[in-house]
Amino acid sequence: MSHPRILRSRWQPGPQRHFPTGPAVVSFTDFTADTFRQSWSVALAGLRLRGTWPDTPGAIGMWLWADPMRRRSGSVSVWADAAGLKEFVGRPDHVRIVRAHRGRGVLRSAGWETERFDAAEAWAYARHLIDNGA
Predict the structure, then answer these.
(1) Cα separation of 11 and 95, whole Å?
(2) Most buried residue, 4, 12, 62, 85, by CB count within 10 Å?
(3) pLDDT tens across 34-68, in order?
């Protein structure tokens, strides 16, 4: 099976970056937009959120990814604990983005906990999810 061309941002560290090899919660999102225009809007919204990452409580770091030809994009975010992820999901700027794009595509997500965060392993598993439609 040929792998689609996936674009990936550089690792964006969060305020918990000094705990990169301890326990972590990893969250994977995959949004397939109904239209190309919508896909670009979602990707730009993700880039805006990425800019807030250094100040996002509980965040260890994150990557954004995109498969532009298939109208897909998403994130792999890493958290010190589930409470940080939950706080981010309920943040007003995140909620606005989710509501703005609800019903305009298909969202898939997955999450897992790890006793020892390994960036290469996390990305490899995320890539597996991307390649296999989450």
Answers:
(1) 23
(2) 62
(3) 999 999 899 899 899 999 999 999 999 999 999 99
Joined tokens for residue 26: 């990893």
Within 8 A by CB and 6+ apart from 81, the residues are: 25, 58
Q: Is the pLDDT confidence value at 22 over 70? A: yes
pTM (two decimals): 0.90
Total residues belonging to the chain:
134
CB 64 within 8 A of CB 8: yes
Q: Do 61 and 38 contact (CB within 8 A), yes or no?
A: no
* CA 116 – CA 57 distance, rounded (Å): 20
With CA atoms as reference, report the closest residue to 104 among 128, 73, 76: 73
Closest to 130 in 3D by CA, of 110, 102, 112: 110
